[in-house]
Amino acid sequence: MSYKRIFTIVLDSVGTGAAPDADKFGDEGSDTLGHIGEAYKGKLALPNLQKMGLSNLRGQAIEGVPAVDSPLGYYGKMTEISAGKDSMDGHWEMMGLPVTQPLDFFPEGFPDELLAKIADFSGRKIVGNRPASGTKIIEELGEHQLETGDLIIYTSGDSVLQIAAHEEVIPLDELYRICEYARSLVNGPKYTLGRVIARPYVGTNKDNFTRTSHRHDYSLEPTGQTDLDYLQKNDIKTIGIGKISDIFSGNGLDEVYHNEDNMDGMNHVDHVMAQDFNGFCFVNLVDFDSMYGHRRNPIGFGQALMDFDQRLATVLEKLKEDDLLLITADHGNDPGFKGTDHTREQVPLLAYSPSMEKNGSLGVRDTFSDLGATVLDNFNVEGTAKGKSFLSELI
């Protein structure tokens, strides 16, 4: 069967256990969903994800979310082959463009040469320049920025340059302009970074600084055609919700929506579901990652999952016979693990349509690109030839 509309929701950073190559990243033992379940001591309630088979795909059930005998549809998990464990790597790979060459990252901070250019362009001094948790470095240097107007620049274990700025000290349009310039400096060949991220915040002191939803990601331009491009060229409507447009630099998308938070993102999903179209809706819900994973907050992470699960009930009710829902993630960010960075994990793969007559396992997919291959197969579009479609397995 083919579907008129495919909705793919990416639960940003909701990994389901260490990937086979986790040791190469120092991430052996990471398990985002498993450690959240342990933190809740059996009280994690995800009834809708549970009945879709969230625990069925694992070697052991998530505490509080046991496997079910007869899932709604099909379940499995996917293994990443890209060189990194960033959102860009994960989403590009889903859309048939694995990142095969490692991008640059700077565990000792950025080169003076690069920072000097940003300082000269912006007319502002720079502080920070080290790997750090975004909330912690703002807590540490935010008051200094209020006094001086200096730029707070920091990084992480990923290929990313982040610029934090108080919205009343450095207005958004100025911050975005600086980030756009920084992006122009790291497109290769000397330095090639996956993302430059604007990280605005508000507040009066370190006790109440809060990052806002005006974050903006400036991703590396896709290095080739993605499945989104092929869909668009074949007049299949493509819709991006959340940071999807940022990740693909706007390429391959007909319609985009920016999320204030996860629930706003789900409002956009509801809005798009009410439309009559033939196409693909690609959704990213980032709060799991930015609000709880990096902050190593398993309780907040679990609550965000439960909030999403409640909204998922509405999505399941509104699905039409010729709709397909896919739920997955782009990497892990285990809030029960060391450090503050993403974790190299396999990700869930849940598939459901009201038209399905059977259910079962999709197994362990060899690459995230299987998802995009399935979307292309459904719309009879030829693309990157990456990945293996599982469309025929959805009965």
From TrEMBL:
Positions bound to Mn(2+) 1: 12, 330-331
Residue sites binding Mn(2+) 2 per the record: 289, 294, 342
Gene3D superfamilies linked to this entry: Alkaline Phosphatase, subunit A (3.40.720.10), Phosphopentomutase (3.30.70.1250)
Pathway: Carbohydrate degradation; 2-deoxy-D-ribose 1-phosphate degradation; D-glyceraldehyde 3-phosphate and acetaldehyde from 2-deoxy-alpha-D-ribose 1-phosphate: step 1/2
UniProt EC number: 5.4.2.7
Superkingdom classification of source: Bacteria
Keywords: Cytoplasm, Isomerase, Manganese, Metal-binding
Names of the cofactor(s): Mn(2+)
InterPro entries, A to Z: Alkaline_phosphatase_core_sf, DeoB, Metalloenzyme, Phosphopentomutase_DeoB_cap_sf
Catalyzed reaction equations: alpha-D-ribose 1-phosphate = D-ribose 5-phosphate; 2-deoxy-alpha-D-ribose 1-phosphate = 2-deoxy-D-ribose 5-phosphate
Entry's Gene Ontology BP terms: 2-deoxyribose 1-phosphate catabolic process; 5-phosphoribose 1-diphosphate biosynthetic process; metabolic compound salvage; nucleotide metabolic process
MF term (GO), any: manganese ion binding
A matching Pfam family: Metalloenzyme
Compartment list: Cytoplasm
This protein's GO CC annotations: cytosol
Boundaries of every Metalloenzyme domain copy: 4-382
Location, primary (coarse class): cytoplasm
Free-text cofactor note: Binds 2 manganese ions.
Function description: Isomerase that catalyzes the conversion of deoxy-ribose 1-phosphate (dRib-1-P) and ribose 1-phosphate (Rib-1-P) to deoxy-ribose 5-phosphate (dRib-5-P) and ribose 5-phosphate (Rib-5-P), respectively.
PANTHER family: PHOSPHOPENTOMUTASE
Family: Belongs to the phosphopentomutase family.
Protein name: Phosphopentomutase
Organism expressing this protein natively: Tetragenococcus halophilus subsp. halophilus
Biological classification of the source: Bacteria, Bacillati, Bacillota, Bacilli, Lactobacillales
